[in-house]
Structures are given as structure tokens and as C-alpha cells.
Amino acid sequence: MKMRLQNFLLTCSLVMMSALALAAEPLPIFDAHMHYNIEARNTWSPQRVIALWRKLGIRAVLATSRPNDGTLDLIAQNAPDIKIVPFLRPYRVQPDRHDWFANSEIERFVENELQRGIYRGIGEFHIFGKDADAPYMAKIARLAKARDLWLHAHSDEDAIERILHQAPGVKLIWAHTGMSTSLDKVEAMFVQYPNLVGELSFRSDLEQNGSLNPQWKRLFLRYPGRFVLGTDTWVTSRWDDVPQLIGFYRRMLSELPADIAERIAYKNGLTMFGLQ
């Protein structure tokens, strides 16, 4: 009897220790805004990038690069524990960001890249205001809708609405959720466009006095399936900031109910791309 009691107590102790260990594990992250550009590749090898993601608990990544070779290099690492979702970025060199939507060479470049058959979306691209009515932008939006691809747009709210009107129902990730767009406008657009997802990097108003901004918290609670996180490693120096950025996101999400924190941290991204 005494031996059975000891075994029972030992089993209970092990179960509790396992539960505590699981609870202590950091929240997994889906990084939905990452660039592995040519400049970063001079100092950050693909192996170093993968090692950083493993260390930080980044389990999945929406990968874009200028040029797209960087994304292909990351995929070639065949990391079984990190899901890489490749997006086609319509930039060959940095200046392309300014006129990609009016450049016939970019159109041919994108057509050739799409033939790889690996991309789940197009972007991140930059476009603002009435430039979003450019014929090629409209073509890209309709192509994405027809092929069930996502768009990833760094744009003001005017351009986002123009794109969504060109291809109603197209799925669009709004980089930085407009960066400085008022939260009242963000909410109005979420109501109007159910296929719009907000990505949170560079939103300086996420915190207020060291805590999660109450207006953001209300949006997260109302639209728990409509937000994703991102590090946006757009310049090489930003890679050094990734640990701090991930720490910030985890602190912010700790103020939300656990199930909603998990959705924003990684489950929304997995669901968007059928990875669950």
C-alpha cells in the first residue's frame, strides 16, 4: 500500500512538473513580415537566420526577399521545425519599390517568378493613394484573386481601399496596419472588408504607458482572427533587434486571454495558409 501511494504521488509530481514546464514555454511565433534582402545575406547566413528563429521560438515565417533568391535560400535549408511561407516580392533592386507598378520589366519579372509555382502571395509591395489605380496594380489584384494568392501591401488606407475595390474578395495583409492610420479607421475597414488582415510591426501606438493600448486591446478582442505579427527586417540592422521585438510582442500578448494571444502570435498565420 505504501509503495502504491509513493508511486501515485510520484506520478502526480511528474504530471505537475510537465504542466509547469509546458506553461513556461514561450508563446510560439509566426513572423508574418520578414525580409531576407541581399544586404543582410552578407552577414546573416541562412543557417544563422534559422538558428535565430529556433532560439526565439519562431515556428513559421512569411518570407519575402529582394531579390527572391534570399527566400529560396531559406527554403533550401529544409528546416523541419520551421514552416516557411514564400511570397513573391516584385522588386529586383531597391529602386523598384518606387515604380514597380508602372514598369513593364517588373511585369515580366513577376510572370517568370510565378512559374516557380511555390508562392502563396505577392508582396510586400509599396503603393500609395491613386497609384493603386495603376493598370498593373489592378492586374496583380485580380490575378491574386483568381489564383487564391494573398497580397501584402505597405499602403495608406486610400490605396488599400482602391486595391480591394479592384478585386473584391481578394485576401490582403495590410503591412503595419497602415502604420499611422487611426484605429477608428482601421476598425471601419475591418467591418467593410472581411478579407483584410492587419500586420502589427511599426505600430508605435500598440503600447500606452507601458501597457497594451486599450483601443488596440478592444480590436484584438473583437477581431481575434484578423491580426498577425511581424519583425520587418527591412534593413540589416533590424536583424539584431529581432529578439527584442519578439520579447515585446510576447509582453503585449500576455495582457490578452491566452486563446486570443495564441491566435495572434501564430495560429492565425497557420490558418491563413492551411498549415494547421
Automatic annotation (TrEMBL):
Where is each Amidohydrolase-related domain found? 105-275
Record's keyword annotation contains Signal: yes
Pfam families according to UniProt: Amidohydro_2
Asked if the keyword Signal belongs to this entry, the reply reads yes
Q: Which Gene3D superfamilies match?
A: Metal-dependent hydrolases
Keywords, ordered alphabetically? Signal
Coiled coil start-end: none
InterPro entries, A to Z: Amidohydro-rel (IPR006680), Metal_Hydrolase (IPR032466)
The signal sequence is 1-23
Protein name per Swiss-Prot or TrEMBL: Amidohydrolase family protein
Organism encoding this protein: Undibacterium umbellatum
